[in-house]
Design a protein that fits this description.
Blueprint (H helix, E strand, L loop, with lengths): L7 H13 L2 H8 L3 H15 L4 E4 L2 E4 L1 H24 L6 E7 L1 H6 L1 H11 L3 E7 L2 H10 L4 E5 L7 E16 L16 E4 L5 H11 L6 E4 L3 H9 L5 E4 L12 E5 L2 H4 E9 L5 H13 L7 E2 L1
Parallel strand pairs: 3-4, 3-5, 7-8
Antiparallel strand pairs: 1-2, 5-11, 6-9, 6-10, 6-11, 6-12
InterPro entries: LysR_HTH_N (IPR000847), LysR_subst-bd (IPR005119), WH-like_DNA-bd_sf (IPR036388), WH_DNA-bd_sf (IPR036390)
Keywords: DNA-binding, Transcription, Transcription regulation
Protein name: Transcriptional regulator
């Protein structure tokens, strides 16, 4: 049998004829002329290669094949209606895919996520961590609905909501001399940080570049591991100052202030302009309650 795309209208007409046992009463319910209902049934029978009704004088009796289709038709029509209801439902539900930098996940998100889950239990929240550059690409591609990133670059496809203001600090092992300029790192410093897509690492390398210094970079994909390496004297890193409040071995670390140009950074919630839904709007509203910045939404 040749494949065909099943028409939901045909299934609806078939279901009504089966329910009322005749074309005329089904036509009244569907606000159609009887000839249109008959044509729909005949079309469906041709496509399926099965008689769906047994015709006896002026009455139709559903056939064994029709009984089998009737059960499927109920399920298909119910699922189609559910899809329409979901798409037109203003209340948050369904899946929400959130991306975030690891530092934000470790310091800012716990209370936000708990509150969101409590208020919107019908939303399935998925959380992914990646560096800023990767997260921006995932939002643009549609792989993520929302993402918390640092200092997003201009892109006409995106909108942003500034949420957290952070202060970045350089961290070294405790015995390290004070660091005020890149020269204080010595002639051949080692930087510990995330991938080159990390906005914080980019700031650190640009700060070094002001003094025309090059550094060896060791990539580590976990702040916990990175800070352990810093305490061991393997190099220096850059982190939001708030992150150090939750580190159990903070006594082995020494923090160094950066100039304001490199120190102050803004974490923004970003999303595509053309891909908004109730669960996203609810998250934007909720995170503004936890933010230390205003809740203004702007184009990037």
């Amino acid at each position: 049998m040749e494949k065909f795309a099943m028409d939901l209208t045909d299934l609806l007409v078939f279901s009504k004829v089966a329910e009322f046992g005749g074309v005329s009463r089904a036509a009244e319910q569907l606000h159609r002329v009887p000839s249109n209902v008959t044509a729909r049934i005949q079309k469906l029978e041709r496509e399926l290669g099965q008689e769906l009704f047994v015709r006896d004088k002026n009455r139709l009796y559903i056939s064994p094949a029709g009984e089998q289709l009737r059960e499927y038709a109920k399920q298909i029509l119910a699922l189609a209606q559910e899809a329409v209801d979901q798409l037109n439902q203003p209340y948050p539900r369904g899946k929400l895919r959130l991306g975030t930098m690891e530092a934000v996940a470790a310091t800012r998100l716990a209370d936000v996520l708990m509150a969101y889950h409590r208020q919107y239990p019908e939303v399935t929240l998925e959380v992914h961590t990646d560096p800023t550059g990767v997260l921006i690409e995932q939002v643009i591609r549609g792989d993520l609905d929302l993402a918390l990133v640092a200092d997003p670059v201009a892109d006409e496809r995106l909108r942003q909501q500034p949420v957290f203001q952070e202060s970045l600090v350089i961290v070294s092992e405790n015995p390290h001399p004070d660091i005020s300029t890149p020269l204080d790192l010595g002639p051949s410093p080692t930087l510990l940080g995330f991938s080159s897509r990390c906005a914080y690492r980019t700031r650190l390398t640009h700060w070094l570049g002001e003094s025309r210094m090059a550094a060896r970079v060791v990539e580590i994909n976990s702040y916990h591991a990175m800070l352990n390496c810093v305490t061991a004297g393997m190099g220096v890193g850059i982190v939001p100052e708030i992150l150090l409040q939750s580190v159990p071995f903070a006594a082995g670390l020494k923090k160094h202030a950066l100039p304001a140009r490199w120190r102050d950074t803004t974490t923004c919630l970003i999303w595509r302009k053309d891909a908004e839904k109730p669960s996203m709007d609810a998250f934007k509203t909720l995170i503004a309650e936890f933010a230390n910045l205003g809740a203004d939404v702007v184009d990037i």
